[in-house]
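Methods — Computational structure assignment.
A single polypeptide chain was analysed. Its primary sequence is given first, followed by the predicted tertiary structure written as structure tokens.
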Amino acid sequence: MTGVKDETVQISPIRLKGFLKCFLLKGRQAVLVDTGSTGDGRRIRDMLPHHGVRLTDLALIVITHAHPGHAGGLAYLKERLNVPVAVHRLDADALRQGFNRPFSPASKLGQLICPLLPRGVGYAGVEPEILIEDEFDLSPYGVTGKVISTPGHTPGSLSVILDGGEAIVGDLVVGGLIRRRKPHISAFADDESQVLASIQKLLDQSVETMYSTHGGPFSADAVRHELLEQAAAERER
């Protein structure tokens, strides 16, 4: 990874409606990870100065995946701040259209919730400037870290890994409905086996703490025990 290794990146969660968070990463400049739902863009813009970031300091917006709760506020911010947007190539069409394919249940909870979800929920689409494949360096945008492909929740899901051992993982790992600090796989995932492989990929890169849109943060040890070791034990039964 390139960049100045001893530069500390400040991670600032911005709490949004519906138990959502996005994350502001502040180094020499600032990078925003995700934008919440439609209507959240104004709150995110207004919160930037509260975290010591001028509007002109925001250098990049990374969308971890193109679901409405992560990209819904993007059009508002893009129109007003004119900041480049990065997304994985496999989620780019959904971002352009402002509409993602139906959720795929990954648990009994997901099967129960799926029929209750509103149909046709969309958001204002945005044309991304940067299409990511496997890895993308953030140092040109003032943050010592990188974006990597971590598919499973969606085919184009991304995670941001910082040099300090933190990762912003979108919905790859989420908190429970009650125990928000206990890691779970999302109730919805395009491919659960890919989710587990992506979690292992993050652990293999010495990630120590995972920050999620829902709940968390989670230690690497908790994620390894609650998700990977338990999944392995279930396969052996």
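Note: The domain at 10-236 is CATH 3.60.15.10 (Metallo-beta-lactamase; Chain A).
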